[in-house]
Amino acid sequence: xxxxxxxxxxxxxxxxxxHYHTEEDIVALxxxxxxxxxxxxxCHAELAEHDAEPWPTKRRNExxxxxxVCETTLTAAEYMSAEKCPHCEAAFNPGCTAHYDLYxxxxxx
Length: 109
What we know:
By secondary structure, this protein is of the alpha+beta class. It has helices at residues 41-47, 76-80, 100-103; strands spanning 6-7, 27-30, 37-38, 63-67, 73-75. The N and C termini lie far apart (30 Å).
């Protein structure tokens, strides 16, 4: 997995996109519908030719998050339990928690 495997609208070298581009917007997330990493749900809506489906519960222990700073992949559980990347310590955007239901099937269970 490398940055070139992340899809997005005008993404930078750390996977920030035109929709989310603060210092902390460095995580790309994997979608259950296609298994592809996108900079955000808006990027998926603009670029994918199918409806988005969140990462499935049965696959929660597989890589589903990607740190754009150090290129480390994390499981969804690892990502959701961290405020920063456990490998490079780059901070994650705490506001992303408001969108977890768009990315992870089991949110709200």
